[in-house]
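Table S4 entry, Lipid II isoglutaminyl synthase (glutamine-hydrolyzing) subunit GatD.
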Amino acid sequence: TRRPSGVETNQHPDRRIDVVSLYPKDMNIYGDWGNVLTVMRRLSLYGYDPVLHEYNQGDPWPDHVDLILGGGGQDNGQKKITDDLFVRADTLRALAADGVPMLMICGLYQLFGEYFETVDGTRLDGIGILGAYTVGREHRMIGNLVEHSEEFGDIIGYENHSGQTFLTGGTKPLGRVDADGTGNNGTDHTEGARFGNVIGTYMHGSVLPKNPRLADGLIRIAAERRYGAFAPRQDDQQTAELRRIDDCAQHARDVAAS
Ligand code: GLN
């Protein structure tokens, strides 16, 4: 459990937000750790007191959870964590049903679905929080990815996966891919998944530094669930820093769109 450097403990007990990073040792490919850094930094700039819990296999589960972030991984990284993921499946399902916001990238997106059948035919069962199943193909889907989401606007990032994902039941896509990239499967123009406050996506990049609106969407839900409202409390310096960060992200977005 740690706080960002420079932040003293329990400065504002009424502003604490508990963030869980799920399997950072095994599921953290293509810079997905940047999502954790972004959420922690933005929470601090909004005047919250973020506390990070890194959860790896066999670790104790934190007492309180406001937001969960999980990254991608190679097929063998996914194989390594599935047993432990099933140990935590009921807890994760209960938190999801309770509305805890979660963002799962690529490898963990697949394992939050129903199953992932790898390209060599191994079937990895998922924990079924998202209505999505994935089948590995020889041909990898690699490259820049741009999608349009009604809730979060244009989302930009980078994809690299062998699995083709198909959505089922009441699970909706996160966005629609028109021209840039493949998305879930290359045939139905969908990208990612959303059920309740749980989001799965193939967006690496990392996605949250480039897409502040998505980052703030997760932060807002976390704050509202815990304290009844999202109530930023920032001084001029924090406001200026947020603006500077958002300008950088906008620049990356303009380049991706051009
Ligand atoms: N191993 C999975 C696949 O190739 C996920 C890859 C990833 O997380 N980038 O489909």
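The longest strand covers residues 132-149.
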